[in-house]
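Lecture notes, continued. The same structure-token format from the folding unit now serves as the input rather than the output. Read the line below as a description of shape only.
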């Protein structure tokens, strides 16, 4: 099969592409605008594979998308391209509206026209898989039941509202035009190649630099953490075996308060990379003013994925975070090139090695 992946230079998209190239015979076309979050250095282990190709383009550009559909002729579309950082959506929502809503609309229209022109056999196996977040459901009180697929939408941030809008558009294209769509809503991911602005890589890298470890509010926000490679495996299962028109919630069964996550990272680093002065990494923790509208708790009921598709996560939080920290310790060069911006200069053909 030919699989078109949008946002494949991002954190989850690069893991999905690695999974497909390394574990299947399918071909992948990665389309990505290469915003600050897109990093082709996350794909160096597979980018020479004959079954992989890359096109730099914006999903808001309908003409460029049509050209890719005409040439690559996808059987499956996995749509991950998005602006994804909640703090950035609070500081500047415009890009979130443009990419997450208008971009998804543009991709849906191009996919619909392409799909309508296919022969019946190709038409029936085509899938448009939209990758979304559990943040569309808003937040939970500590005693509330978990998010299920029928939980009403109640997004809190510009990011989650833009993702909720995109989900509605995708469902409408399924209902109105019959486009074979599937949606997944997933909890917080972590793992290798995570951009260092997000909590887990930020804490690991700040700790290694002996810098403060900032925690919003009291650090009592609860997130359900999923190792990114478990998510990539789940997404491939959904796009190849999931039922058209369905929504699947994907989660890690790993609810943890942010402060617990930070403490676990500090303890692992104390063991793996003790500080020169013998102090504990936890002494670097600093509590900072909470983010406006900060959701208290997200937690996913992923039993539909287990019961209908036989998917469960392989990693526990303990095993996944150990692997993640080991990866960061072994790949500090990747991190430094992200932190100093040289990953962006390289793709523009500018080299600043001196
Ligand atoms: P990311 O920010 O790491 O990557 C997003 C990618 O999209 C980048 O490579 C970026 O260059 C690309 N992109 C942005 N705007 C584009 C545009 N207009 N045209 C083409 N490409 C564009 O994000 P991620 O963490 O990998 O998340 C991927 C998807 O999964 C997103 O849709 C996100 O909402 C969803 N999701 C993420 C998480 C998480 O914990 N990270 C959890 C659940 C769902």
């Amino acid at each position: 099969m030919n699989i078109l992946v949008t946002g494949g230079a991002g954190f989850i998209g690069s893991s999905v592409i690695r999974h497909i190239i390394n574990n299947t015979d399918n071909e992948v076309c990665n389309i990505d605008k290469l915003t600050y979050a897109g990093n082709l250095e996350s794909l160096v282990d597979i980018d020479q594979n004959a079954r992989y190709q890359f096109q730099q383009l914006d999903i808001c550009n309908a003409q460029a998308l049509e050209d890719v559909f005409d040439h690559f002729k996808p059987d499956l579309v996995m749509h991950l391209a998005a602006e994804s950082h909640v703090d950035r959506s609070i500081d500047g929502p415009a890009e979130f509206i443009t990419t997450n809503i208008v971009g998804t609309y543009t991709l849906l229209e191009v996919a619909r026209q392409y799909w309508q022109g296919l022969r019946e056999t190709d038409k029936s196996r085509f899938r448009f898989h939209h990758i979304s977040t559990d943040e569309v459901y808003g937040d939970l009180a500590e005693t509330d039941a978990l998010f299920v697929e029928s939980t009403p939408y109640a997004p809190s941030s510009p990011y989650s509202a833009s993702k909720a809008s995109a989900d509605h558009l995708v469902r409408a294209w399924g209902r109105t035009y019959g486009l074979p769509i599937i949606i997944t809503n997933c909890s917080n991911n972590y793992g290798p190649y995570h951009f260092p602005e997000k909590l887990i890589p930020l804490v690991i890298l700040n700790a290694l630099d002996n810098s403060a470890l900032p925690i919003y509010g009291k650090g009592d926000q609860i997130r359900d953490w999923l190792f990114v490679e478990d998510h990539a495996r789940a997404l491939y299962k959904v796009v190849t075996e999931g039922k058209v028109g369905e929504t699947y919630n994907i989660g890690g069964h790993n609810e943890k308060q942010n402060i617990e996550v930070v403490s676990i990272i500090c303890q692992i680093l104390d063991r793996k990379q003790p500080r020169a002065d013998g102090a504990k990494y936890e002494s670097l923790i600093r509590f900072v003013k909470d983010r406006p509208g900060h959701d208290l708790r997200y937690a996913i009921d992923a039993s539909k994925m287990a019961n209908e598709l036989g998917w469960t996560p392989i990693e526990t939080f303990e095993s996944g975070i150990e692997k993640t920290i080991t990866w960061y310790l072994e790949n500090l060069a990747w991190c430094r090139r992200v932190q100093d911006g040289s990953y962006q200069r390289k793709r523009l053909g500018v080299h600043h090695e001196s």
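Point for the exam: Residues 348-354 have pLDDT under 50 and may be disordered.
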